[in-house]
Amino acid sequence: MFQKTLSFDDVLLVPQMSSIKSRKEVDLSSTINEKVFKLPIISSPMDTVTGAEMAATMSENGGFGILHRYNSIVDQVEMVKKSNAANIGAAIGVTGDYLERARELTDAGVFVLCIDVAHGHHISVKSALANLRKHLGEDVVIMAGNVATAEAFNDLEDWGADVIRVGVGGGSICSTRIQTGHGVPTFHSVLSVALRAKRALIVADGGIKSAGDAVKSFAAGADFVMLGSLLAGTDESPGQIFSSNEGKKYKVYRGMASAEAQLDWKGEANSLEGISTTIPYKGSVKNMLSLLDQNIRSGFSYSGAVNLKDFQQKVK
Ligand code: IMP
Predict the structure, then answer these.
(1) Is 228's C-beta closer than 6 angstroms to any atom of ligand 1?
(2) pLDDT 10s digits, 42-64
(3) What is the distance between the alpha carbons of residues 173 and 311, in angstroms, rounded to a whole number?
(4) Reported confidence tier of residue 86, pLDDT bands at 50, 70, 90
(5) N or C: which terminus of the chain carries fewer CB neighbours within 10 A?
(6) Under 8 Å between Cβ of 132 and 119
(7) Which of 174, 187, 231 to mutate to test the pocket of ligand 1 (most atoms within 8 A of CB)?
(8) What is the atom index within ligand 1 of the atom nearest the CA of 176?
(9) Is 174 a catalytic residue?
(10) 164 near 203, Cβ under 8 Å?
């Protein structure tokens, strides 16, 4: 019934003997279906994180973005076109127009579809995966989630997901734990799914607030990390920059289950599991990604590791 779990802040990695002379020697790349991403970072499908500009910039810098789904099919396809069909992903739901949306998005050139729901260990995700496979075939890469346990991870693998978002209740703008009492620390979830993963790739998602937390996610077994707050508040995230009376610059960052996001998207708000907040303006996301890249490389080198696989074998 009760289980001890670990969160990012409960854990530190032990420095080990290293023969790496420069951070440049470290290869951070991670692969999905033979596509190589030299920076294993994905931007979240949220309306204050990933629009066309973020998706294009993420892929120019070695990662990729998932275009959010809180708009019409026409608008989402327009975002795909504006990203010049760079290596990008796009989110879909599990009800309503999701199949048509999926078809239009793959026709427009997205390489990964992301079934984006809060509670991914759900019968609706099973039927959506079956329908997507039936109508779109085996070639399209399907990401699904979010899940918190190894049982859920294995079920989604069996239902046909190729990549799975791991983390429930851990997001910086998430109030799922407060409103519903449910959730598992993301670090613990990643650790437990990595021990049982059979086929699908692991994306650590929610609560990654520093490069160090990303390094800890890779240590636990993640293939990629997904970031919301770290990439929000940049030039490339959707939304206005505004200034406080003291001259400080801010942007809005909000959970997709916040009242504000729900009202904008569907005109009513129910089952609130997120908050809307402001975060300091950070300038270009390119700089942010470059800092994360350097710090994650340093992280791998503290464990004497030259790449992700090496790191996951050596880390203590
Ligand atoms: P962050 O990087 O800690 O800010 O977390 C971002 C993640 O929070 C996203 O990738 C989603 O998995 C999750 N998320 C987005 N919106 C909401 C919400 O309204 N409630 C709970 N979780 C959310």
Answers:
(1) yes
(2) 999 999 999 999 999 999 999 99
(3) 30
(4) confident
(5) N
(6) no
(7) 174
(8) 21
(9) yes
(10) yes
Query: Residue 171: CA atoms inside 13 Å, Cβ hemisphere, count?
Result: 30
CA 289-43-292 angle, to 5 degrees, is: 20
Best residue among 70, 164, 173 to mutate for probing ligand 1's pocket (most ligand atoms within 8 Å of CB) is: 173
Question: Which residue has its alpha carbon closest to ligand 1 atom 16?
Answer: 255
| CB of 238 closer than 6 angstroms to any ligand 1 atom | no
Could you tell me the distance, in angstroms and rounded to a whole number, from the CA of residue 255 to the centre of ligand 1?
6
Query: What letter would DSSP give residue 251?
Result: E
User: Tokens 């449910």 map to which residue?
Assistant: 182
Give the pLDDT confidence of 116-173 residue by residue, as tens digits: 999 999 999 999 999 999 999 998 999 999 999 999 999 999 999 999 999 999 999 9
Model confidence over 162-215: pLDDT tens digits? 999 999 999 999 999 999 999 999 999 999 999 999 999 999 999 999 999 999
- Nearest C-alpha neighbor of 98 from the set 130, 132, 123, 134: 132
Q: What is the pLDDT of residue 2?
A: 87
227 lines ligand 1 (CB under 6 A): yes
